[in-house]
Amino acid sequence: MRPTSRFWALAALAAAAGGWAVVVGRPVLLAGVCGVCAWLLAQQYRFVAALRTVSGALELTQSSSASRTVTGASTFLTVTARVDPAHSLTLRVDPEAPVGADGAVEPLWLDGRATETTGTYEFEWPVAGTFRVGAPTVTARDRLGLFEQRVVPDAPTPTVAVEPRRPRTVHVGEGGDPIAAGFGDHDAGRSGRGLEPAEVRRYVAGDAFRRIDWKATARLNETHVREFTARTERETQLFVDHRATMATGAPGQTKLDYARHVALAFVDQAGESADRVGCETVGDEGVTGVFEPRADLDHLRAIRRHLDALDPGDDADQRPEPTSTTGEASSPTPTAPDRVRATRQRLDGDESAFAARLRPFFDRPDAYVRAISDRPLYRAVEAAATGAGALWTVVVTDDANRTELREAVKVARGRGPVLVFLTPTPLFEPGGLDDLDAAYDAYVDFEEFRRELAALPEVSAFEVGPADRLSTVLAEAPGEDRARQRRGR
């Protein structure tokens, strides 16, 4: 219980009157002061007794219009306060706005003349995550405003799971042609006893009697045995790039939104297949999340929550300029070793002062390695590639840092197959379809890079983007030579 300023004002006035009564010798005035003090004590007792009654009878309920929503959407929170029977206090109920939501709340009032009050509040959810609505705070005050008490009663605390907006038209494919990829049972690359029949062959000495296929033996009039494909669980390491370049695109339709869609599909399919899957997310400053390969559902849910909450690496006003038609980010990018060697050979035959000044820079064979090793995606992939055992590597990124990606893929091949999912920059740049000729040229440049990656041994590379924008670019591309270029001829 806390006395209010009104109580202290009356108490101070009574104390001043009592002091004055003593000074002037007025016993009647002193008796009046004592009466005021007794009245204040009586009001305090009545407040405590009423508060005890109200605390036991107060019922608070909270409910959300939806337990799941998407970023940018709104939900409604309904708060109801009920007290029965009537009481002599004034109750102020202050709902708590959930963290991560935009919206205003106003207090609810409940006095002795009413037994129930209800308020509905609208909240907008700008960011992804799971948020809990806290219990309201109730402040009780007597009708004269002399005392008040603040309590947090028991009340439901609903949660709202906010997921990023999913892209509406997702294309995954090669050169504009969609593909369907599975993540279920995986071929172990060997034959033997297993669950999936592979082939029927002639019996040879040493084959187990129980492996004889009697139907095939009767049909072919010669003893045959059936081979099976041994199935195995695949361990997958997923790398998701959410650097600043992944912010390109309209809200809810950015590169990161499409990359996240693919990454979540891998996580979901891993759960259905009981595969071990790990995940690392890479931002501008380095690795922002690490999940070691595991197969339990809690682990997969944690990965999903982390991917749902990903944002591009930088704020919007700090994003780099759009990438050039070559697909390299605007920052300097190291040159591949073969190009360095070719340039060095040309400089050997040049005796000019300019060539003499450049020659020392091309005599440093480790410069390329050092420059690439500082890149966050390469660094993360390289660390995973140094482990033991077979590993499927899945990289979800864009085409902004081509040299880094190319070298990261080459390193990852050391532990097993590599899948690369790329978001083509031309399909996401604002106003990128205003000039369809330029958009198509940029897409062809991207497609050449994708094919270059796909041509590497043990590497498959796919494009991920908005199907409607891609079909627009391809349908409007003029020129017979461009059609041949699209088909790779």
CATH fold-level label of the largest domain: Rossmann fold
Number of helices: 13
DSSP summary, beta strand count: 22
Q: Looking at the chains present, what oligomeric state does this protein adopt?
A: single chain
> What percentage of the residues does DSSP assign to strands (E)?
25-35%
CATH class of the largest domain: Alpha Beta
Helix fraction? 25-40%
Number of domains: 4
The CATH architecture of the largest domain can be named as 3-Layer(aba) Sandwich
Going across the biggest sheet, name each strand in turn: 13-12-22-21-20-17-18-19
**Average of per-residue pLDDT values:** 79
| Helix-and-strand structural type | alpha+beta
What would the principal axes of the Cα set say about the shape?
Answer: elongated
| Distance separating the two termini | 85 Å
Round the Cα radius of gyration to an integer and report it. 36 Å
Q: Characterize the biggest β-sheet.
A: 8 strands, mixed
Show unreliable segments: 181-196, 314-335, 365-369, 480-489
Sum up the structure in keywords:
Rossmann fold; 489 residues; Immunoglobulin-like; five-stranded antiparallel β-sheet; 4 domains; 35% helix; alpha+beta; disordered C terminus
Walk me through this protein's architecture.
This protein has 489 residues and is an alpha+beta fold. It has four domains: 2-56; 57-163, Immunoglobulin-like (Sandwich); 170-182 and 234-486, Rossmann fold; 192-232, no CATH class. It has 13 helices and 22 strands. It has helices at 5-24, 27-57, 214-220, 255-273, 297-308, 337-348, 353-358, 367-373, 376-385, 402-412, 436-454, 467-475, 480-486; strands at residues 2-3, 59-64, 68-70, 74-82, 89-94, 108-110, 116-124, 129-132, 137-142, 147-151, 159-163, 170-174, 177-178, 186-192, 196-202, 224-232, 235-241, 276-283, 286-294, 392-398, 418-423, 459-466. The strands form five sheets. Strands 13-12-22-21-20-17-18-19 form an eight-stranded mixed β-sheet, with helices on both faces. Strands 1-10-9-5-6 form a five-stranded antiparallel β-sheet. A three-stranded antiparallel β-sheet has the order 2-4-7, with no helix packed on it. The longest helix is centred in the N-terminal third of the chain and has 31 residues, at 27-57. The model is unreliable at 181-196, 314-335, 365-369 and 480-489 (pLDDT under 50).
